[in-house]
Amino acid sequence: MKVLFLTNIPSPYRIDFFNELGKRCELTVWFQARNESNREWEIEGLGRHFRYQFLKGRTFGLDKHLNLSILRELNAEPFDAYIMGCYSSPTEMLAIHWLKLRRKPFILNSDGGFPGNDRWLQRKLKTYLISSAALWLSSGSSCTRYLEHYGAAADRIREYPLSSTVLSGEELQPLAPEEKAELKRKGNLEGVVLLAVGQFIPRKGLDVLLRAFAKLQRELPEGKASLLLIGGGPEEARYEEIIREEGIRGVTIKRFLQKNELLPYWKLADAFVLPTRYDVWGLVFNEAAAFGLPIVTTDRAGAAGDLVRDGENGFVVPAEDTEELARALRRLAEDIDLRQQFSRRSREISELYSMDRMVDAHAAILEGWRTEREVASREHLYLDS
């Protein structure tokens, strides 16, 4: 089965996924760009088990790609299944319109979203693009609600477990006590270590986290908890200003780290927290759960309700609510039994979001798609005869 997947850039988790899916079908991936200005990933394994091509074009702003060459490429080679990785870039809009005009059914993949207060024209455009698909791939309950809001047929939505990384047993092995103690010493970290990993941009809500941590510190004995922020970005100076204004102690800030550099910090942490203002999913939650961390996030994370379950493996608090966030962090900092309970549950949930399960789900969906197309083709021939 010849499958085309159109996506933005070769992110690490997508490459892992494409290589595995490429073992199950004849997969071709078209990338709209090699990178985006807010990404610093190192990519390994590109094209190991799939064909790929970087479309000629330009990128505007952070992530809006225009690849007029896609029209030539679509005309040049037919596929049995067309999967649009999203719908929001000019290139994806062109591809969707081209497919729709030629009555070529396609699958729309979405990692998630939250319906907003769209202007009339924006709402009409989203509805046109999303509802044009014949089948929808959804990362979970939040994404499904989003797709339905913009015209997707509920009975044509297929949810799959979104996985972000492949971790070996060795990589998941915990640190030895002496290694953990040394890493804490080097990082000036004490007590319960709260970890946040994400770009230092307003959307991630790390300013809210700092203010909640300041409140937590005033309520706990000195040295009871520390905070480690990893990510880098334009808001770093603002975070340092908040730390000075609030007189916060025990905060360590590190810039962007690659996957192998992050590993010891996942193992060092006692809990993961990301009070995002908006994340269509939040791939860092997959990693946090894989390492068995209790997770604290907000109701504006797409993973909330699926991978992050309030009261089971963490807490989901309202976005921008410093008081509720501080309360959730305090419960985890003070209660080791609760942290251990949430840790076990995170690992259990993480097993449901493995790369193997993600690939199996897509392979089954594509097999169903092929069967549907074959039946439709036979019925068309029968009606014409």
Automatic annotation (TrEMBL):
Domain of life: Bacteria
Gene Ontology molecular-function annotations: glycosyltransferase activity
Spans through the membrane: none
Occurrences of domain Glycosyl transferase family (ranges): 189-348
InterPro entries: Glyco_trans_1, Glycosyltransferase_grp1
Record keywords: Transferase
Official protein name in the record: Glycosyltransferase family 1 protein
Organism, as annotated: Cohnella candidum
